[in-house]
Amino acid sequence: MTDEKTDRLRQSGTLNPRPDIVTDALFHDSAFFDPRDLLQVRYEMVRCTVRGVPLKEAASRFGASVPTCVRANRAFRENGLQGLIAQRRGPRGAHKVTPEILAFVQQYRAEHGPLGSRRLVPLIETRFGVRIHPRSLDKALAKKTARPR
Q1: Mean pLDDT within 30-57
Q2: Quick check: 76 and 48 in contact, CB under 8 A?
Q3: Phi, psi of 85 (to 5 degrees)
Q4: How far, in Å, CA of 109 to CA of 10, rounded?
Q5: pLDDT at site 1
Q6: Considering only CA atoms, which of 88, 42, 89, 51 is closest in space to residue 69?
Q7: How far is C-alpha 9 from the chain's CA centre?
Q8: Count of CB atoms situated within 10 Å of the CB of 74
Q9: How many other C-beta atoms lie within 10 A of the C-beta of residue 42?
Q10: How is the chain split into domains, by residue range?
Q11: C-alpha 98 chain-centroid distance
Q12: Do 42 and 61 touch, CB atoms closer than 8 A?
């Protein structure tokens, strides 16, 4: 069962996926500190290191790895609290398979018959100068031909 705060944390991207591994006393002795709130956990971890606690110990107490602790410290120094909010990593969506490439594939298939992605990828690379994984092309084609909900 989830409560409103858990829902808000999830929506904002600040729900700690592993609140059970936060062992710092602050999060067990007070109702104010919530181990589900990833922003609060990261902030307290950074404060802990600023007070002189070694990175390895701070990371352990707050359920993080040492590299995560280092990144959190750097992010806080550079961007304040906003820097502690996890950002989605990697590209946002299918950025290589453009509408022009999909139109090319449809036209090519219409002229030459059904052709699999593994055979289309080299043609796309030659024509557009873009290297695409066959599975990415399959997904984009499936998404284009899928019926709307």
Answers
A1: 95
A2: no
A3: -80, 125
A4: 43
A5: 46
A6: 42
A7: 16
A8: 12
A9: 26
A10: 4-84, 99-141
A11: 22
A12: no
Of residues 4, 29, 6, 33, the one with CA closest to residue 17: 6
Any idea what DSSP says for residue 39? H
- Measured CA to CA, the distance from residue 88 to residue 70 in angstroms comes to 18
Q: Given its phi and psi angles, is residue 70 left (phi above 0), alpha (psi -120 to 50 degrees) or beta? A: alpha
Residues in the chain: 149
How does DSSP classify residue 11?
H
Instruction: Please give the average per-residue pLDDT across 51-75, as a whole number.
Output: 96
CA distances from 130 to 56, 94, 109, 127 (A): 43, 13, 19, 8
Q: In which residue are the tokens 């359920």 written?
A: 63
The predicted model scores a pTM of: 0.60
Largest CA distance in the chain: 71
Could you tell me the two tokens for 6?
Answer: 């858990």
The first and second tokens of residue 69, run together, are: 């602790």
Note the helical H segments in the chain.
4-12, 26-29, 38-50, 55-61, 66-79, 99-112, 117-128, 134-145
65 three-state secondary structure: coil
**Cα distance between the two ends of the chain:** 28
* pLDDT, tens digit (0-9, with 9 covering 90-100), for 94-125: 688 999 999 999 999 999 999 999 999 999 99
